[in-house]
Amino acid sequence: MGWSAGWLRVLAPTQYALIGGVFTAAYLGLEWLTRVHELEGLGITLWNPVKALSLGLLLLKGVAYAPVLFLAALLVDLFIYGAAKSVTSTIATSAVVALGYAALAAGLTRCLGFAAGRSDLRNVIALLVTVPAGTFVIACLYCGFLVWFGDLPARQYWEAVPHLWVGDTVGIIIILPVAMAASGSVQRLGETRPAVLLIDSGAFLAGVLIALWLIFSFERANEFHFFYLLFLPVSWIAMRAGFVGAAAGVCVVHLLLLAFISWGGYPASTFMGYQLLVLALALNGLLLGAVVDERRRSDELLREQHAEVARMTRHATAGAMGVSLAHQISQPLSNVAMYLHVGRQLLADKPADPAPIAESLEKATGQLRHAKDILERLRDFVSRGTLRPAPTDLGALTRKVVALAEDDARAHGVSVRLEAATVPPVTVDALQLEQTLINMINNAIDAATEASPAPGSVTVRVATVDKWVRIEIEDNGPGVSGVVAKHLFEPFVTTKPGGMGLGLALSRELIAAHGGTIDWERVRPDGGALFTIELPLSPEVGHGA
Fold first, then answer.
1. C-alpha distances in Å from residue 241, one per residue of 127, 287, 297, 300, 422
2. How many CB atoms lie within 10 A of CB 541?
3. Least buried of 39, 140, 312, 375, by fewest C-beta within 10 Å?
């Protein structure tokens, strides 16, 4: 976008005239009220808030209002300063003000992306860097034309430039941030409790008044000796209220400082010194306030991201739980289907003999109850980590699981052999351990089906080793690849084409909840795998209720 974009912002002739008239009246009134330490009657003062009004108009409405600023500056020279300059000088300096601030506004908005309604750190830095540089160039051109047309002696040029620069820069840096903060202050004040707001404002004002009293009460002290004390309340309010507090605080400090200086009748040199110190105070306070706001926004964004991650984690956990449930109940549901199929065949072949049919249906019903128990136990474990421990004969439990797996193993040409010694009862959740053994023995059978050239075989051993009961499940399959071995017990890692990769991960979690361990090793360099489960004979773990 070019300069023409600013001209396109003109809403309508009537509105343009209305805004221009209000601005011109405000410009003349402010200029008349703030004639502080005027230099040679040339309209160069050490406090010029009207330039903040000018820049604000151009930022909000665009450079189309530069002619309005030119007219206002011209009228001020004619009616406020009594035409102290020549006509050509008045026109030239008014043009410098209008074109200079239009260029400054265009540079801020188009080159730096500045927006008067935002108080983020990038916006504040753009303002604090660009304004002093731009006003310095304008001051040099303004005073240059005064010298050119003979209204200012050349020897006073470098006296007039800082005089004008300080007044314009301080006026903008003090007033414009207040307008920037106003857009967010209503929401910020609405979120702050009245008692907190009252305490913060009172503490800040008390700190400022104490600092000003110390600055101006000691006659023998250097005029600027205690000015640093004002940094304390300004920094404090910036940290408490962010940019809004900093902007308001700096403005209050400056107005009170003006009152003290005016009341004390200090000379222009002293006033300029205080203005420069106020400029440093404003830069420090506004930057600190912007940084505090940026940190708060970052913290809020981080909290939102954490909440989103937590929400996604809950969804992932719920999904994983659903997959785990499907994984755990697939075996009993397969048995139900098998028993119902057998019952249907018996009904077709021997309808007159109901006993085998009833037995098959009873087995199917038992497997459904088993699936229901699995669902409830696994839900409790995943959601609350709850187990239901009881003394269990691992030898009998293992024989039951091996018996359930033999038919499926035989169908795949795999033999299953059990070597179970007599072991003491172990306190475990029998249902959960049973599902773990079913999962691991079925994995071993699947691996053994790929054994070649020897027939597939799976050996299950139960024995006591020191204070542990060890269950070993060995197969003669092709083994586990090196890539998968590194992550074998992690979720969603599997060697099966249709596997979900949750069996071993859930099995390790269940065994760990019983105070035990589960691990594996290669049987031979070319294949085979041995999985080992160890459970303590007297586990000292909290199983929940």
1. 20, 13, 13, 16, 74
2. 14
3. 312
Q: How far apart are CA 62 and CA 16, in angstroms?
A: 12
Q: What is the pLDDT of residues 425-467, one digit of tens each?
A: 888 888 778 878 888 888 888 888 887 777 889 999 999 888 8
The Cα–Cα gap between 79 and 373 comes to 95
Q: How far is residue 147's CA from residue 18's CA, in Å, rounded to a whole number? A: 36
Three-state secondary structure readout of 111-127: HCCCCCCCCCHHHHHHH
Average pLDDT over residues 383-412: 79
Rounded to whole angstroms, how far apart are CA atoms 43 and 89?
12
pLDDT, mean over the chain: 80
Q: Which of 31, 16, 17 shows the shortest CA–CA distance to 62?
A: 16
Q: What pTM was estimated for this model as a whole?
A: 0.59
Q: Please, what sign has the CA dihedral across residues 246, 247, 252, 254?
A: positive
Tell how strand 517-524 and strand 468-475 pair up. Answer: unpaired
| First CA to last CA distance, the chain | 70
Sign of the Cα torsion 162, 166, 168, 172 reads positive
Q: Which residue has the tokens 């830095």?
A: 125
For 30, 59, 69, the CA distances from 53, given in Å and listed in that order, are 9, 10, 10
Query: In which band, very low, low, confident or very high, does the pLDDT at 471 lie, cut at 50, 70 and 90?
Result: very high
Q: Which of 132, 103, 105, 100 is nearest to 116 (CA)?
A: 105
Q: How far apart are CA 316 and CA 91, in angstroms?
A: 72
Q: State pLDDT tens for residues 354-371.
A: 777 777 777 777 777 767
Burial class (CB in 10 A: 0-12, 13-18, 19+), 493: middle
